[in-house]
UniProtKB/TrEMBL annotation, chains A, B:
Belongs to the peptidase S28 family. This is Alpha/Beta hydrolase fold. PANTHER family: PROLYLCARBOXYPEPTIDASE-LIKE PROTEIN-RELATED, PROTEASE S28 PRO-X CARBOXYPEPTIDASE-RELATED. InterPro entries: AB_hydrolase_fold, Peptidase_S28, Ser_carbopepase_S28_SKS. The lineage of its organism: Eukaryota, Viridiplantae, Streptophyta, Embryophyta, Tracheophyta. The keyword Hydrolase applies.
């Protein structure tokens, strides 16, 4: 890890490529609901999902809700989908479940998210899925090329604007279905989980409650968690196999040692079958870091990545003796698959989603994720705000505002402050998800509820259910739906008490 | 009233000129803490106030908190004042009282507002007064001329940006005084009262509570009050003198009758001693409307305007016989004073404050105030959104967003919704203030408290106290401070329970 710090991209979604984008001398990492890099993850785009009940719509959205300059009045088409099959109707004030999109296209969200369709029939709910501005088809300025061009166009991509978009669409949907009093529950995962929680805090008159899955809401400059992201990555590897953990721990020095030899980078390139020549040992190290981190973040059935990679690293093949880097490479093959060559920059492609997310990471979603001093299997390199800011400046010409998120959303002091003004939020976290270190892990009040599972991975609870789900996952989801049900019941009682039609 | 509708400008402050600005074929009316037009109102600029304990500061404020375009990073100097004389200090977590400026200069706020200095010593509070962006000296773009030039520069003038300004300054003040846990109570009147309530709802992690004085929070398109502004104006006149009420009621037709004669406008002009020739009878009618409305809005000691104007209207002078319009003119003299001539456009001067406020009225603060069908002493002319929007378009080239305030702040359903997520707000209203029709007049919960007084006028409770204050006013203020005190006590107990330093 020659890099001074890491920008963790919240891989919120879709299932095929990581968001690791080199940013000057640093990297951006991952948030998301499922991995895009690991070889056998079910991929949203190929998975068979019955979407016949879904209808697609486009909403004429305001570019800038918070100024009134002539430019702010520009509009763009925001995509959203509705499934009304199971809805109980306006007369019954039947609920609305709304999935708030994150840094991903609506298509991949629709493929991966199961919470709405798995629970819609039971709750007689209208199901709404909304695409986040600047992702998928939802592009201001007429095209992705224009929207993602520079800071002048990207400037309108941020959480506050996205939340105001959601507010406008949800009010529009209520009007469209002539239902004044249907309670809305918003759901999101990872960065989208933060949006869901923030939406409940900022628009409680629109959302009755929120399910914030794997949302690292406290992973900001003013509320840094005691243990960092890589602490959990390491812990999960160590618990899976002490030997595997030690092999990885020792590999970084070995990589540097080989790189330091004459022709060292060529040797490394051959060892790891890289498609392109290496610029430095950091190319390999970043690549390995990313796949280990993703292996933990999405460590779940049918692929238990950490077991897979550790089995490969620990194995003794019959015909030859493995050296240390052979073992590490065997781990790569286990995670990424057998390929003719390996693109160490596969996480860093300048796709539309990656560009948009890097912008968000460089403007307000500044998560101070680094290789902290705690016992991790990575060389120490704590997050460095100064170089992070410098990287963003040189990349986008814009200075991050690392205190803005806590200034605007302000959940710094959970017990003293949030407990007093917040309500109806479920913070769900798998404790084996590295992002859980930045999550709300304890109940704050009767209606600010933390639901954690020891073995849960990133956003697992809101993905499609399956017959192979372990019992603890079934129980977790059942708990969540019961809490949501209780919010809805209380609300319906309030309606009755106020003599409003139920 | 030939005019189809009225834009009521919330006269928030200072004490010398009304904000009646002609806007195409309509007019903008008034919000504010004291009248600027009526002849003997104490004027902030001349009133003697001991400000020796106040220190002035300038904060480097971000132009646009909600986008990250290069332009958004422009900054301007925002003026604020601090009085730390009575502050109990950081160790005691002594409270901060923060006055959130409205559409007025800090100077006039400092002169008129008494609530902070009248209660600061008792609460050992730090006193902070902040000037609203685009008013007084707080001008983006380097000068008022630039700032108020057109929609491109005025576009950054709105409530959400102003609240974010206040958040940034209050966090800065806490840092400056090294006090993490001093509770902040925000206070504002009229439009500033709305800001105070909204601030508590949107930044509850920064403000522990809010005193919203005479804030017509429900006077928006989606939450129109049953009775309008002019219903109260009429009611107060009628209760003061049925004869006076009838005279005014009959005067509009008489004005039109005279205007319809050959040379009618000249006759009217002479009758009312206007400085300039009249463009139509509406010049006189708008002028009269405004001074009657202000007479009610600021009807308090030492000047009881309604009694004054009605005494003049009802009087029978010894030497001559009054006709109807003589009586009406006598009322004008009683309110505005004896002048060589009367400027009927005195409310409509394009001062900086007036231009800025008209912009706000034309972008988001769209209050549907009209002459409704209820029994008023004015000819019926209900608010007409279409012509309001047309007026704004032709004036500023910008289309109002009349639903934005309720979308963003959303206190439409007070009992069903606000009761569940809001806390620690005092809504204070004088029921003789025409704006009280749009206020929250009933308790919503134990901590969302309505304090009303039968005879109170606009923002009276937060003005400087005086020995001549009636007992009900003394009691009202005492109630308010007790409620605030209870919030602070509860908070200090919470701090103790959490073992935080108190």
């Amino acid at each position: 890890m020659s890099l001074p710090y890491t920008i963790l991209i919240l891989f919120i979604f879709s299932t095929s490529s990581s968001y690791l984008i080199p940013l000057a001398h640093s990297k951006i990492a991952r948030l998301g609901i499922s991995s895009k890099t690991l070889k056998n993850e079910p991929d949203g785009s190929t998975q068979k999902v019955d979407e016949s009940d879904l209808k697609m719509y486009y909403f004429n959205q305001t570019l800038d809700h918070f100024t009134f300059t002539p430019e702010s009045y520009m509009t763009f088409q925001q995509r959203y989908a509705i499934d009304s099959t199971h809805w109980g109707g306006a007369k019954a004030n039947a609920p609305i479940l709304a999935f708030l999109g994150e840094e991903s296209s609506l298509d991949s969200d629709l493929a991966a998210i199961g919470f709405l369709r798995d629970n819609g029939p039971r709750l007689n709910a209208l199901l709404v899925y909304i695409e986040h501005r600047y992702y998928g088809e939802t592009m201001p300025f007429g095209s992705a090329e224009e929207a993602l061009k520079n800071a002048s166009t990207l400037g309108y991509l941020n959480a506050a604007q996205a939340l105001a978009d959601y507010a406008a669409i949800l009010l529009h949907v209520k009007e469209k279905y002539s239902t004044n009093h249907s309670p809305i529950i918003v759901i999101g995962g990872s960065y989208g989980g933060m949006l869901a929680a923030w939406f409940r805090l900022k628009y409680p008159h629109i959302a009755l409650g929120a399910l914030a899955s794997s949302a690292p809401l406290l992973y900001f400059e003013d509320t840094r968690p005691k243990f960092g992201y890589y602490y959990i990555v390491t812990k999960v590897f160590k618990e899976a196999s002490e030997r595997c953990y030690n092999t990885i721990r020792n590999s970084w020095k070995e990589i540097d040692r080989v790189a330091g030899k004459p022709n060292g980078l060529s040797i490394l390139s051959k060892q790891f079958k890289t498609c392109d020549p290496l610029n430095g040992s950091f190319d390999i190290k970043d690549f390995l870091d990313t796949i280990y981190a993703e292996a933990v973040q999405y460590n779940r059935g049918p692929n238990f990545w950490v077991a897979k990679v550790c089995n490969a690293i620990n194995a003794n093949p019959p015909n030859r003796r493995y050296n240390l880097l052979d073992r590490i490479f065997a781990g790569v093959v286990a995670l990424v698959g057998n390929r003719t060559c390996y693109d160490t920059k596969m996480f860093a492609q300048p796709t539309n989603n990656n560009i948009a997310w890097r912008w968000q990471s460089c403007s307000e979603i500044v998560m101070p994720v680094g290789y902290d001093k705690q016992d991790t299997m990575f060389p120490t390199a704590p997050f460095n705000m100064t170089s992070y800011i410098d990287g963003c400046k040189s990349y986008h010409g814009v200075t991050p505002r690392p205190h803005w998120i806590t200034t605007y959303f302000g959940i710094q002091e959970v017990k003293l402050i949030l407990q007093k003004f917040g309500s109806n939020i479920i913070f769900s976290n798998g404790l084996s998800d590295p992002y859980s270190v930045g999550g709300v892990l304890e109940d704050i009040s009767d209606t600010l509820v933390a639901i954690t599972t020891k073995n849960g991975s990133h956003c697992l609870d809101i993905t499609l259910k399956s017959k192979e789900d372990p019992e603890w996952l079934v129980i977790q989801r059942e708990k969540e739906i019961k809490v949501i049900d209780s919010w809805i019941s209380t609300y319906q009682n309030d309606l009755r008490d106020l003599n409003m039609p139920v």
